Fold each of these.
Amino acid sequence: MAGVLSSEHAATASATDVHHGSVAQTSLVRLHLRLKWTLWKRSYRKNVGKLIGTLIGALYSVGGLVGLVFAFLGTTLWAGEGDAFGLVIRGLGTVTVLAWFLIPVLAFGVDDTLDPRSFALFPRSAKDLQPGLFAAAALSLPSLFTLLAVGIATAFEVLWLVLFGQGVGWILAAVVLLVPANLAGVVLCLLLPRAWFAHSASKASSRSGRELGGIVAMMVMFAAIYGFSLGMQRIEDLDFEKIRQWLPGVVDALAWTPFGALFSVPMDLAEGAVLPALGRLLIGAAAIALTWLWWRRSIDASLTSALSGDASSGTTKVSALVPRWAKPSPFGAVLGKSLRYWRRDTRYLAAIGIYPLIIVFFVAMGLMLPESRPMMLTMTVFMCGLSGVSLCNEIGFDGPSGWVNITANLPARANLLGRVAAIAVLMVPPVLVITAVLPLLYDMAHLIPLVMLASVGVMISGWGSSVAVGAIMPYPASPPGTNPMKDKSASSANAMLTMAIAMVSVFVAQIPTIGLAIWGLVVGSETLLLVAGLVSLVLGTVAFWVGLRIGTTRLESRYPDLFQKVRDFL
């Protein structure tokens, strides 16, 4: 051994104070903090979309803090007796904790930055990992803005106690518990999403479940946004007097839940309500303790599931690549492959999964606001054009599998036509139905020919634009199965430029149609409207033929070079 080891190695091996795996808890916490900081910084590299989104979110958050200051000023210094301040504090505290819990619940498939499964190979238990993971959870912009908001609320609570307190003793008791109770509320805000993420990591062992969960979460999020938008259209019909009567009772009931208990304790003491304050304090303490234990148990389960591997379906059904109704040929093979992608790949499902929600929104908006019906029909035609643009990165979506097309000498024309035929099979029938039914629902049946023909024409134009631009400017894509909420492939400058050129090309080709349609609507001529629809169909066909020629020529001459650009997934 002496002949093998150097003197430094021998000294290290003979050391008596070296123990395998002995890392102090404080060192482990610092390690988690450095790891979280490093990963957070690296997540912005080459991710322009995330950087822009973060900046916009930070600006909105600063605006929210300013609005919070004015809201508190209005309920303290600018208020007569400050009666509404307690209601505002309890309500905002409950909403804050609920938001911290519900956002990760609805964002199914979004993983924690420090996923507990990543530590499965290290000799550490959940009890050892928890303090470091909790400290790392506080190292984020949402945590920072939440802490600032709670700090502002704490300062105004002290001001309210001085101005409107119910006695010196109660004021002192409230001040003593104010900072600990509010900090405990922040702790609960951080613990709830950590526990949920760990629980999801331990349960979501099926890849298909995770992928479909991401699609469902995205659709739920958009449904909530559209529902809120529709609700705001009828806000003038709300009975605000009844809401003002019901609101205190609702807020008080929520204050007895773990979500609102901790932020309500100081206000209870300030109002002299000792028993409610003690009860809510116990509820909040129990919520923190149970959430901590739930998190620990979920970390243990996720560490185990990470080592045991993903669950599989057990059986795999094998079917022919070429559909039965298609002729066995290169075109049929590409068609069959693309149809499978549209059914199974979350990148494709996310591209079309949102359209049913949009159509429902258009229908509801037109029925609620009759004056918006022309705009809704116009937006329907516009969305048909966007559905065609969804093909603009087909070469990039192939990724490393694109070499199969090259080595098999797949004809470029069949390669592109098969992909277009697949989306045509999926999109043309529902588009025809929707564009025929929607004007009927709006009592604008005379616009059916224009809307139907223009929608199909714009969609065909989008296919032509996509096959041309996609063969000229492909960009690397995320791998199959990527959660839509974590897909960063569309945030690069190349991706944004490609999408912009494709969308502009679609509607530039349809400028004559737009002019004829406006003319026909102004003079009220159904003949002109029909001509505008037919012109849209002809222009779309011409645009598709030109785009196909460009894409085919480009693939035939530069396919290996294009493959080099997109052969690696992001």
Amino acid sequence: MKLRADFVQLYRDVHSWVGIIAGLFLFVAFYAGAITMFEEPLQSWASAPVALPPPVSLERTPELLQKALAAHPEARTDYTIAVTPEDAQRGRLTWDGSGGQVHHAPTQVMAAGLDAEGNLVVVPKTPSDAARFVDVLHQQVGLPLPHTPAMILMGIVALLYAIALVSGVIAYLPALVKTLFAVRLGQSVRKRWLDLHNLLGLFSLPFHLVMAVSSVVFAFHGQIFALEHLLFSAPVAGQHGGMQGGRHGGGPGPADHGHGPGGGRDAQSAASVTSAAGASAPVVPGLPHVLPPVLAPTDILALVTRQAPGFVPEVLNYMQLGHGKDVVRVFGYDARYPTRGPTGGFMVLNSRTGAVQSGEYMPGHQPAKFAILTSFFALHFGSFGGTPVRWSYVVLGLAGAFLFYTGNQLWIVSRRRRERQSGVVVETRGTRLLAALTTGCTTGCVAGISAVFCTVPVLPFGGTYGAVSAVYYSVFCLFVGAAFCLPGQRGIRILLGAAGGVTACVPLMLCLHGAHLLRTPEGMGVAGMAALLSAFLFAGAVKHTREI
């Protein structure tokens, strides 16, 4: 059915104006989102190494635990055992060093080990917040606001994003069939931006639909998770016989606070643990209640291997809830199944008996209703299919950011042409404002994130959240201000070149201060991506021509 011309024009206007309103926010979200696919290796590189002896074996971990908990009894309520050799190098045993207090100071974690003579060695470590800042920047579409209002605004932007997608498909899809692969680079600038925008938008449409809908979910995750828990959570007593679907912590361990769907992952995990622990260690009236000892890590791992073959444990998080309600969260992944969070799932065991308390977030052991929800989250995070899918999400994220840039440029070029055709000699204030914001915000975002990782080696603790936030927004505001002070093509060339120069420093800093990261595929990927982006920005600065 062919739409009336006035309807088509209406959808085109909706697509243009909604896209203009949301485009710059979405550029920041997609560009930062592509960087977060490397969050774990960047976090490892940015954080200062821990001056600990070589990690003890898992078999000797009970000895380490006995000495550490005797010297630091406050750690009994919540401590973590690293299972994998990579994590163990940063501390086989760790616990929160803030004493449960909320501080504005950097988060401190205590790491423990045994020296060659078997003596306890405890050192504090302060993880870098650089990678976490980029993740929050992605979640909050670049808004430097408290998390709750920023997420509400992000939800509004995501709704506008969905409207722009639908209206664009209705208005432009019939015409796209005829000129699908035509990219008229040699013709007018308006046609060039139009063809690039259409090509990127059409071929990545399924990806963008998933991102739009899932972003709305994340923006209002609190209400949605509460409804999910009300509708889907099974009684705890029914979870002892096997592993059943559910909430996913999705991180390498409990230290990964604030990440995941809207930053609420730990709250979900804690609620699941508290609920699951309710059936632990029943007390017989009239008899003294003697608790069995906590199971050693090797025993826990053996139980997990029997319960879930193929699941790879990475972290054991022991939590002492009191009254016999003591649990251990086993974080890990199973490459055969999608996961609810970016990197994996977890199961909850009774830390004294080994009984399964909850498997609701266990990859591959979820009922259909939870598996459907998990698939939805996995499509947003790219937490399925292994390395090829993660790299595909990097490319799609960067292409998405460029899609929003081309949309803004197309609007600006078309607006200038209409103004000149109507006899306006000087650009209107609205056109100048959007042109400056488009150039300043996009180059400022790219340069700001690059500057964060360039300054990590010289910042205390690898960059506290406040420090890296100050670096990013200082660079961002500098570029936006320069875009208003240097209007026209000269300003665009200067800002593109400056952003390319800052981005080119990232692989240089990795070579100077991150040789160990460059020995990994992820590290080489980060360096290669930064080098390609800088070359792209330099090429844009050199070849940028007048748009009309």
Amino acid sequence: MLEFHQRCRRLSSAKLQEVFHYVLRRPFQGYHPYDQLKNYLLALFRFGEPDEQIFSAVREKIADTSANGIEQSLGTLCADDYIQWVKELWERRDQEPFYQQWPENIKKGRQQIDELRKSFGLTGSQSAQPASLMQPAALQFIVDAFSQPPVLPNAKDNEETILRILQHYYRRPGPERVIQCLGRETLPVVWKPAHSCSHVLRARNNLLWYIELLEKFDPMQFSDIEKNLLSLAIIYHDAAAEDVPKRDEEARAADYFKRDLQGQYPQQQLEDIAEALASKEDDVHGKSDQTISPSVRRYLRVLRFADRMDFIRCSGVDASFPGFCPGRHQLTVFDPWRLDLPSQLTRDFTAEPALKPDFQRQLEAAMHGAADLLQVTGSHSRDCRADSYIQTYHLKTDRTAIKEKFELTPLPLQNMENCLDDNVRRFIASRAGIHTCSSPDHKDCKTDRQNGITRGIHNSFHDLRQVQVPTGMTRLEKMQCRQGFSLLSMATQEAIAQEVQRLQSEGILMSLGTLTQQTLKSPLAKQVLEQRGFAVISEKRFRGYDDTGKVNLQEMLVPIPVGSVGS
């Protein structure tokens, strides 16, 4: 609370209005305005009042939201009702206990910090500051321990290296925050909710497909070493986020990046990419890119694009996405012009579909793929496109399962790649008339139990994975396929057409479930398993202990893949 108070006191009037705008949009990102926004607004009311321009921006946001989205966010309220509620809250703020008690709570917070400082022997004339920014000398050894670099032997853009970086910088507190955590009864499951592992993995995916797109149109070419370094750099870009003040995040992340990879890559490239990483938000702070060398500038472009493309996790995906059109209210929605695109490729951008240049069509199709991937890899943001991904494919997002895939598992990169491939599989299956089954009686998926075939997707681990992604399909094509099938190479289009034909002919094989010993004895079961690439063999399996303590082994029939027989 005290840190919030001090930050708000430093805000200019314009910045305060931006904060109001962000907060008032929260109902459309999975938050309810009454229970969770009220105190947030009352706290901000201590420093100012939202102006009419902000209310107009909120109205535009509501106008871009689907009717279903508005009902989920506001219930029966309309835009005017919602804004009137905010205005009435402002008028009666003096009657609200939270607003009334704010000065007293701030005073108590300062007293508690003073007492804490004295307990550590930190007396003096320094002004009180939040405990999160304190580093008592007696506990410096903890800060030093958490400041040690990760061990990254043979660092490359692979699962092993990326996992170590995520574990070191994203799955635990940074050195500045570790003291704040001492004495807590519980610790957060996700240390960086606004800059999570899933965010940096999506940013890495954005970087790789964007480089592929740039190389396709030849304005920039990158060596394999550069691609490796840039992929690792974008994983590092939020390494210090939520640990240090916002203004220091990029510089600290660049220091970590250069320190950890020292000696493993050419020094000049390492320094140039680190400089680009440190300069990523300079344009936001009003600094010019003119002083940056051309080599650093090209790295800076792709790093900015990769990170800012995933800003849709915060802004949501509005109905006009990607939004390369004039007159669009950039404050309220994702702003594609902040992606730092090469000017020579964007000068002919237009909102007219028939007049869009090839680069714009390719870019927009891939951007839609990024929005699709966001929906299945963890975000509370709304998808207000006419063909919303979740609604189109009848999906139900499990936020807990998504969090486990990226924040808790040892295979976060593989899980992200699987999610991307699964999106391609859904697209291919839909072209074959196979969709996610949402019918309790399975009539919609035309299940043929006699032959063990279904024409619906019931899960991703068995049914969906039977759809084959073309082996030669590039990352860029995977991003583009749903919105730009005609943009794919002829080889990829033909491979998808063949898979569609196979699915229409063969359907999806139903899961066999748990097979009993009686079933495995039957010739028909053995025949079906053989058709699916399984052989039934006899193995001795552990079945407990006898009365004398000896191990009991029992002959049991076991289905195993044909390729592993005799191995």
Amino acid sequence: MKLLSLYLSTILMACSVTAANSVSSAANNTPDYNMVLIGDGLKICSSIDIRFCTSKDVFTDAAKGTTKFGLTSDNIKNVALADFWGEQRIIEQQQVIALLQHIANRLNNELITERELLRYFRGADVEVDGVWISGRVVYAALTDREINFVFDQLQVLVPTDTNKRNNDRKKEYADLSQTTDRFSVEIYSKIVELARQVAGPLRKPRILVVTAGARDPFADVDFYTNLFTEAGATASWFPINAAYQIAQQQRDTDKTACKQLPQLLAEYHGSYQRQRVYPQLMAELETFCQAGTEAAVNQLKRADAIFIADGKPSQIIQALRLQDGSASAELQQLDRMVKAGHIILAANSRASAALSGRSYQGIRTPMLTNGDSYSAMQFGAFDLPAPEGGCDKDQSCINGLAEHHLTFNSQGGLGLFPWGVLDSQLSEQGRQGRMIRLLHDSQSQFGFGIDENTALLVKLQATADNEQVIQFKVLGENGVFLVDNQSTETTGEGGNLTLKQVTTHYLTRDDTAELKQGLLRTQFADWKFAPNTMQMPMLVSGDIFERDNYRQLAQLLCLTQSRQADGKAVRVGQGHAITLYKDHSSHTRQGVYRQQGAEVQYCSYRNVLVDIQPII
């Protein structure tokens, strides 16, 4: 018996050591990449958006299929709040109330969808003080802030059972297996795959979802947590946002600060009545707030990945920085974990831009916050807060800015990506011009613009002599536009600025790049080859920064033997001429990738130069 007991003890000890080593090994796993930066435009099948589903009947009636609005007398009274509208917008307030009361009389307490509410509002005509007003005209005159306020006050909870009076609400669900766009599925699956590398083989990876940048930080919680659960992770909401961070800083002097979250959400997010629409999530936010910073940091420590959903960069900054601009305890913990390879950092669209900051090669890296390419080239970049959407309508734009002026924060954002300026929806929104102008005006060297349905994978490495090396790889449907501002030649200023020999690259699927000591090297995927056509067409674009005209023009230059392509960006007789051209250092590669039985053609280029000069 003693021999048997000794034998069993030895076996158990060996198993314990093996298990301990496995856990230790899992904790020290180095992921293939540390960051997944997404350019927006992912197309996932969900119960609210079935456009990207294989069929219309993927979800049952138990899933939330739409938001609902109720034009009750109490809700309309809330819309009429004078403190919100102010004296300058009293006429718009009266017109909105008259239109809503007119619609309410037709509905007879029936709940309607957002699409129906828009149709009723825009299609309504009503008499106010002897004057007929058009709902379409009134709606067009409202700012984004006013529209959001009206809709928030009218939105109601969508119950699981309309026959019971309770706070159980329907939730939005996602289904990756029934999603038609496999590029989008691939990107989300990559996040889970990398998180699994951090977690190790003994458990599911834990992913935290942050919705701090959204105007309504509750709206997408169900979608993202369900999506990552579908992809094989244990997903939970990490309810950090500007309201939470402000409440934490007030708790030293006001013990009831976490009870003021609805008011703080209205002030800092422009989000109203969320406790009525999402009672459970509001309760979860309050519990998170009451638990405090230490509990939030501990939750981060247990995570394998964190996903920051699309939203305003300024709100994401307010969620993770204190009011004096210093890093919160949560941001400090996240920074340490990312650098150590203990957590995967994923961010979508404008949330990616919020990661910029700190400095690289002795130059401060700014955060891009607003603007279009035409305004950027015509007026330059302003180190000022971004104007609010629709501010041109009510003359509320501040600091002499217009709604589409290019703005940036010279102090940067979260400082988790110091190697250059980040931008999203680059090609689809024609944002090449604003990227180039911001790099010039801020004296930054590198810019990374990520297209829709595309991700930039980032790996942090250190060489034997402890030099930092950053490796990049492109994943997804489209590409990443890179700008190197080091050799740019400039003359003039403001709208008369001339830029010459701006170095640009466009990397597509499986292409890679490496950044070391301020030098960026690119490499094409080995399945791509030099274009073999002999065509040399004349390449011209009349409105180069509209939609994806720039990308289309550049792709023609990439695929042919043409050496130059010319475009213009002109409004009311003013604007700029843009020339893309190849020199002896330029290289292009094309290839075909097969996805879901379809062929996707790519063309990548290196060292295509750009000249931009005013049209006189």
